[in-house]
């Protein structure tokens, strides 16, 4: 359980609560670009407890090149299944220029190797735990059986291995895998236990979207480094996580050709909500969100990503001259610089129709509406869903397999202006409205994580198919879930 001071200081790094890399300063007024996103900071709060943020560990931007995580190769392939091996271990890697930092990661990397898999082709992964502590793995956004979902108490002990099976029956999407060990997931993810899992949809090849070297996953997070280069982790230290990382390197550069690129943006930070925009009056074309391709592309001035959310965007560098540079910015400063280094032929495109959504299932006479509330208690130092902290022995929601429900998710934290988000395991959902208004641009597709600003409500419609068993739903601002803002649903016949 988080104590009061930790919850006070950790609770503020949320949409709008984080401005300029700090949770302790008052919210700033929304810039025009942030207002365009529909979720920019728009109210002020009083300062909370905690130390003044420091920026001494931040290196100068654009000194190092952004790496692209390596793609994992199967150790065996059979008629209908590919088999992979993943070792989870500690190692020392270069994150800051010229400095080695100890991380906990898949394959010993801060960003684990990418699994590129195909829709309809089964995958089995053997995870071997080479750490001195129990861990597990959750495939975020994956439609998987309960025993492969990474339940918090379903652990791999040190020196042991476990096989997880991923059927990949869902449409193509940008998923990711990460640790979900009870009470430790926030620290483990912060220290590097995460990686991309990209499902290629059967429909994608004919669309001729940018592919191969021009389809680039970019993992975004923040960190606080000690003078010796080690990672500092404590829930109350979130104000000092001012070093922004793209694929594990601080504010790097990335060489591109003057052509279109598909970037898969993923926010793995514990609290920071990114507000991403390009300079030079450039825009991004969003083609996908958590659950895969949108029905149609959407032009975006700003892309907002709370922890756990993904957005696929196409950026066209074709009009730029060789030698020009384009910076991807957050409200706290630059994140990544694209350097146009060459010209290239480009036969890719962004079609007007991407992946039409099926009609929403009818609710019928047995319609089920659920009220889900999110709140922290500063006095008790706890975080709640529906006024309860997580208890693995309690089932909070029972739903019938194949049923469709509407959930109204409300953030009750208006007095301290804390934003939250909600992630559902197993299923994707559709956002119906925000406080009665239509979903924001880029929210028309399938989602598994949704941002819920302070005092706001979001209605989602979700169909529970595929598998039986117990699954989680929780705030993906991970110190909040560690503090108790997590619950479980049981899918029954």
From TrEMBL:
Reactions this protein catalyses: 4 Cu(+) + O2 + 4 H(+) = 4 Cu(2+) + 2 H2O
Matches recorded under InterPro entries: Cu-oxidase-like_N (IPR011707), Cu-oxidase_C (IPR011706), Cu-oxidase_fam (IPR045087), Cu_oxidase_Cu_BS (IPR002355), Cupredoxin (IPR008972), TAT_signal (IPR006311)
Gene3D superfamilies: Cupredoxins - blue copper proteins
Superkingdom classification of source: Bacteria
Keyword set includes Oxidoreductase: yes
Plastocyanin-like domain residues: 89-202, 383-491
Location of region: Disordered: 37-64
EC number: 1.16.3.4
Keywords, alphabetical: Metal-binding, Oxidoreductase
Keyword Transmembrane helix: no
SUPFAM superfamilies: Cupredoxins (SSF49503)
Family from the record: Belongs to the multicopper oxidase family.
Summary of subunit composition and partner proteins: Monomer.
Protein name per its UniProtKB record: Multicopper oxidase CueO
Natural source organism: Streptosporangium jomthongense
């Amino acid at each position: 359980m988080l104590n009061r001071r930790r919850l006070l200081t950790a609770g503020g790094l949320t949409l709008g609560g984080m401005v300029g890399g700090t949770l302790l300063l008052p919210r700033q007024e929304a810039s025009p670009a942030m207002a365009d996103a529909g979720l920019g900071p728009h109210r002020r709060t009083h300062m909370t407890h905690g130390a003044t943020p420091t920026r001494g560990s931040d290196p100068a931007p654009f000194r190092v090149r952004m790496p692209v995580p390596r793609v994992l190769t199967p150790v065996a392939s059979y008629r209908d299944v590919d088999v992979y091996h993943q070792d989870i271990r500690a190692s020392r890697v270069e994150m800051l220029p010229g400095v080695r930092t100890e991380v906990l990661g898949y394959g010993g990397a801060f960003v684990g190797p990418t699994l590129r898999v195909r829709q309809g082709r089964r995958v089995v992964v053997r995870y071997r735990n080479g750490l001195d502590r129990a861990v597990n793995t959750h495939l975020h956004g994956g439609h998987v059986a309960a025993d492969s979902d990474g339940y918090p108490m379903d652990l791999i002990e040190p020196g042991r291995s476990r096989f997880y099976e991923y059927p990949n029956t869902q449409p193509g999407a940008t998923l990711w895998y990460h640790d979900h060990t009870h009470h430790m997931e926030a620290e483990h993810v912060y220290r590097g236990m995460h990686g991309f899992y990209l499902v290629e949809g059967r429909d994608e090849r004919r669309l001729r979207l940018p592919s191969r070297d021009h389809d680039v996953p970019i993992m975004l997070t923040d960190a606080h480094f000690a003078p010796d280069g080690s990672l500092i982790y404590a829930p109350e230290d979130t104000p000092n996580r001012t070093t922004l990382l793209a694929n594990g390197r601080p504010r790097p550069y990335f060489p591109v050709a003057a052509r279109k690129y598909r970037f898969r943006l993923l926010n793995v930070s514990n609290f920071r909500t990114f507000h991403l925009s390009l300079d030079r009056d450039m825009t991004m074309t969003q083609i996908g969100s958590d659950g895969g391709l949108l029905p149609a592309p959407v032009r975006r001035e700003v892309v907002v990503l709370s922890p756990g959310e993904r957005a696929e965007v196409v950026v066209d560098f074709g009009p730029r001259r060789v030698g020009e540079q384009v910076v991807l910015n957050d409200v706290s400063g630059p994140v990544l610089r694209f350097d146009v280094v060459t010209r290239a032929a480009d036969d890719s495109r962004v079609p007007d129709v991407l992946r039409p959504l099926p009609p929403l299932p009818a609710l019928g006479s047995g319609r089920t509406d659920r009220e889900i509330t999110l709140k922290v208690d500063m006095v008790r130092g706890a975080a709640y869903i529906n006024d309860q902290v997580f208890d693995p022995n309690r089932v909070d929601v029972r739903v019938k397999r194949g049923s469709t429900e509407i959930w109204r998710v409300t953030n009750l934290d208006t007095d301290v202006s804390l934003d939250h988000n909600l992630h559902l395991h197993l299923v994707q959902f559709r956002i119906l409205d925000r406080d009665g208004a239509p979903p924001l641009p880029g929210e028309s597709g399938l989602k598994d994580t949704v941002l819920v600003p302070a005092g706001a409500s979001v209605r989602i419609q979700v169909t529970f198919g595929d598998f039986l068993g117990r699954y989680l739903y929780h705030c993906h601002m991970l110190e909040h879930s560690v503090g108790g803002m997590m619950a479980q649903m049981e899918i029954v016949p």
